[in-house]
Amino acid sequence: MASIGDVYQAAVQAHQAGRLADAERLYRQVLAAEPQHAYALDMLGLLALQAGHADVARELIGRAIALAGNVPLFHVHFGSALHVVGRRGEARTSFERALALDANTVEALLALAHLERQEGHTDRARACLQQATAVQPAAAGGHYQLGNLEAAAGNWSLAEQCFRAALAIDSRSAPAEARLGVTLQAQQKLDEAVEHYRKALALDPNSAEAHYNLGTALAEMGQAQEAVTHYEAAIRIQPNHASAHTNLGAFYQEALDYERALAHYEAVLRVEPHAAEAHYNRALMLLTRGELAAGWQEYEWRLRLPGFPIHVMREPLWDGSPLIDKTLLVHAEQGLGDTLHFIRYIPLVKKLCPRLLVQVPPALVPLLTHSGFGDLLVTDDALPAFDVQVPMLSLPWLLGTTPENIPAPIPYLGVPDDMVTNWRRRLSDVEGFRVGIAWQGSPANKGDWRRSMPLSEFAPLASVRGVTLVSLQKRDGERQLRDAGFPLYELQGVWDEMAGPFVDTAAVIQNLDLVITADTATAHLAGALGARVWVPLGTKADWRWFLDRSDTPWYPTMRFYRQTQIGEWGDVFARMADDLAACAEKSA
To answer: Do 379 and 456 fall within a single domain?
Structure first.
């Protein structure tokens, strides 16, 4: 007949092997024979804790401590039972009591490190983990936790070393493989990261996080379709995996499959109602589809996106109601083109709020001043006192903009007549049908590859009889002029330097027959001047241009030529060349 000691050891072995029902039966068998068996009480309590029964765990482990209060592990387990229900102060006391009994109790050091991390004491947590790995260098857990700490602090190289140390001890640790992949991905070692994510999944095919992280690495490498399979796998394992739903939504949004994209964003919001990225992405789709009422409201979630280019101010946000005796500050956000686009709302706002200040980028002050916009502040200035504030792109929502009532008082930008006359004289030697062109936006814009195109794409336009192309390109893209390969008039002398950015360009545009430009600030400038302007658009164009339209209520004189295949501009410029030939012939 087996002794009590043998039964206890069998219980521990079953526990370690994950045979929890067998372990519980054997622990209870020990306690039936020996009710004061402290170790069996402790382990039965630990089993209860693992099953989510913290109250039962504390009762059983408390009895073990009453019988043998000098066993450090009992205090570690008791502290863990307190920690899991949020009683961190009492948990800390238990962990510290364990260390007072034995300063090298690794389990206590690891548990205390976890608590310190939760409370934001990174240095204390690191000290605990470093001590644990020094005491027990062959314990993978200490290296693994230290790696997690260093990763959370952004110390990717140190984290990588820790996870490699953990794997050197336990080569079959799926979590360590997966976390090593994360550190490698953060260091842009994508091929290695993918290798370790795949190893993690070979060890644990049901790791939703490993599937998700592998998907993100593959997406970074341009392997979007395989990335989708891993996002979907993550969701099959963990249906409420918000990040996987968000990324799938972004994939289908990119593919213009808005119904599937919306379904994934809605799945995110069921789990995390305040997920700003899902709200924001949904806003872009609604706006693109012309569902402005719902879209503008969702677009307000951009204000909660980390890193979104907007001023954070203490003053309350304007709610759209009239303000008679209070000062309102409208501040520009995002790019120069956005400011040129939405500055049109300022006269409407001024009717509601006579005491109005408008903060804009310094580069636009000369043009906007010439255009009659007063009370301008630049973004670098110290702000005067004001009562309420609003970002400029919130104005369409607050003023109830729909596709039918978009304010388009064209032109709402302009420059003095003498500047236009001066440029008419300077351009007198430019013959034929004059077409101003611009092809390159700022490369700093992450979506620039969609909107900009090589100057060489304009060659079919240069070959149209009776047409003279005039370069309106400034800075980025100017180097391409040397290798244009076709006739192109370049503006002579200094322009947009003395008068200010866009000012000379505006005067030049008013002496042209047509502007053809990438979707940049130049397009907004031409549209707001009331000039005839054609804009070649990629398959996934900016939300403000809606879907499939060749015109826009924002700028009545603007026309779009849309790609039919991603990245292919040839067909776009061939169509424009045909239409340009007709225009040139008609004006001859």
So the answer is: no
Please indicate, yes or no, whether residues 380 and 482 belong to a single structural domain of this protein.
no
477 shares a domain with 363: no
* Cα 467 to chain centroid, rounded: 43
C-alpha pair distances (Å), 553 with each of 336, 410, 556: 20, 11, 6
Which residue segment(s) compose the domain that 346 sits in?
Answer: 328-398
Residues 526 and 445 both lie in one domain: yes
Whether 1 shows a pLDDT value over 70: the answer reads no
394, 423: one domain: no
Residue 344 in any domain: the answer is yes
Q: How many CB atoms lie within 10 A of CB 371?
A: 19
264 neighbors 245 (Cβ within 8 angstroms): yes
d(CA 410, CA 407): 9
Give residue for tokens 């314990």.
Answer: 139
Q: What is the pTM of this model?
A: 0.80
259 within a domain of the structure (yes/no): no
Asked if residue 457 lies in contact with residue 494, where contact means CB atoms within 8 angstroms, the answer is: no
- Closest by CA to 453, choosing from 421, 476, 432, is 476
pLDDT digits (tens, 9 = 90+) for 358-413: 999 999 999 999 999 988 998 777 889 999 999 999 999 999 999 999 999 999 99
178, 207 in Cβ contact below 8 A?
yes
Compute the distance between CA of residue 394 and CA of residue 296 in angstroms, rounded to an integer: 8
The CB density around residue 384, as the number of other CB atoms within 10 Å, is 9
Q: Which amino acid is at 26?
A: L
Which residue has 């206890």 as its token pair? 8
The rounded distance, in Å, linking the Cα atoms of 386 and 349 is 15
